[in-house]
Each structure stands twice: as structure tokens, then as C-alpha cells.
């Protein structure tokens, strides 16, 4: 008799209510794949893009979810042992094959990272994609160095807050933006040095403090704010385009000499599990357990609250990560 699981399925792009819970067979892993019992999964903007029909190359019906956190059930290739705590991120999850919005998920072993922690599953479920993107943006996208300054555009997003935590661990001076003055305290609590209320002219606020501009800048809002972020950055400074909270990611009639300020460097980051070394994941979780780092979580939802969670993500009301527990 085939064992069944609960999964959240999207049959076709639509509103949050288009995400439906149904019974599906538990996947069977083949060589090189890992079956994971999902304990928790975080929500990501890319899943919102998929639900809205903005993502390319996705076939339906599809179980969404570009990340998952749980324990190994089976790994036929021997890459992991049953019972190991693991996270899985990216690599086509929730797009070209079913992802983490389920009680079990089956993913390539190359997308899986093991760890050991006594933190609760709600906290652990918030970490993988958030940490991978933040760490990858700092290292690959910005080559950020201790003592440098960084501007985080879209600071109250989960990645924005995680990047602030990592940057402070590196001894960086952190500037972070929010459009809502009521969210300033949330940024101050995680160690942000300069909270900037985003009025569209952030470069003036930055240069009032650092006349030459910041050393590095992380763009998480998208192309509408990118020109101002570039103008906030010093000559030979680096801006990394990572996020698209605005759902706008293309520049019309791009003329580089006019668009990019003289001497400022523009890069981009989009990565996967290979950009998150196991030692970095374990070290971050250990730091959280020791009270030396924080995981910015807005709310943890039950499995059957997925539509409510997606609505909160779409409305942009969250300050930090949204997480769903499977209840297993």
C-alpha cells in the first residue's frame, strides 16, 4: 500500500487561495536523491512569483518551496544517514520538481546540507535560504571585508535582516532602509548602526553621514530603487543586485554609462546550496543557540495556514521571515 503525505499544491497561478492541501504519495528516492521528512519550511519571494505566474520554466501542478528543513528518511546513495538533521535549498526545488511545501520532499543530494542543533524547528526552518542568500551576497556578490560599510536596501525583509546580522559579525558598519518608521526599532535591535527611512532619496541620507558613499550596497527592492542605491555608493564601491521585493527586475533601455555612476561597480547574486558551506550553516546555528546571533522571524504558521502566510508575504507586512511548520 502506497504511503501518503499532505502537500500544498498549486494547479495553476492564482491568488493565495489557489494553494490547496491534498494527499499525495510519499516520493521514492533514486540514487543521488534524498527523501526528507520536512519539519518546517520558510516562505520566499520566488514562490510568490511562481504563484503569480511570473516565474519561467515552471510546470503545473506543482508543490512549491525552494527550501525545506527536516530529517533524512532515506538516501540510497549513502550521502546522508537516516535521522540526520538537514536543510535543502534551491536546485530546481518547487519549480522543475516538487519542493518543500509538503510533509516529505525528495531532492538531489547536492542540494542538501547536514547540521546538528537543538533549536526549535520554527527557528531552524527560517534559516537555510535566508542564510544562503545573505552569505552568498556578502561573499560572492560584494566581497565584503571587515570594517567596511554596507547599505542594505530593503532592510526589514528576511534577507535584509539576516545580512545585517552577518555584516555586524564581520565588524561592518550597517546602513539599512525601511519605508515604515515604525519598523526602525526592529532594525536597531539586530545591530543596524544607521536606520534610514526610505523616501526615494537614500543617497542624500547616506552621504550626509559618509560623504564619499558606502563601500558596499545590497539591493533587495529591485530596479525601481537601484539607481539611487548606485548613487549611494563610493567610487570603486560595489552594489549587488540580489532581490526584487518590488517584483520589478528588468531595466528598460539600459544605457550603462548613463545608468551606472562613474567608477561604481554593479554585480548580481543568485546561487544555491554550494554557496553555503556546512561550516557556515553550523557556525551560524551555534551562534544563535549561544545568543550571539538572531534569526529574524516575523511569524510561524501551521501547515493549514499557508494561504494566510502567502497573503502576508504578498502584502509585505512581515518584518523578517515567515515560516510554516508541517506538524510532523
Notes on the protein architecture:
- This protein has helices spanning 45-51, 121-125, 128-141, 158-169, 184-189, 202-209, 226-231, 256-259, 278-289, 306-315, and strands at 4-10, 19-25, 33-42, 62-63, 67-74, 85-89, 104-108, 112-115, 149-153, 173-178, 194-197, 214-219, 233-241, 265-268, 297-302, 321-325.
- With 328 residues, it is an alpha/beta fold.
- Strands 3, 5, 6, 7, 8, 15 and 16 form a seven-stranded mixed sheet that branches.
- Helix 3 packs across helix 4 (158-169).
- The model has no long low-confidence stretch (mean pLDDT 95).
Instruction: Please indicate the percent range of residues in DSSP E strands (runs of 2 or more).
Output: 25-35%
Helix content: 25-40%
- Written as H for each helix and E for each strand, in order along the chain, the element string is EEEHEEEEEHHEHEHEHEHEHEHEHE
**How many distinct helices?**
10
- Rounded to the nearest angstrom, the radius of gyration is 20 Å
How many β-strand runs?
16
Structural class: alpha/beta
Oligomer: single chain
Global shape: globular
Query: Major sheet: size, sense and barrel closure?
Result: 7 strands, mixed
Low-confidence stretches: none
What is the residue-averaged pLDDT?
Answer: 95
Question: In angstroms, what separates the terminal alpha carbons?
Answer: 21 Å
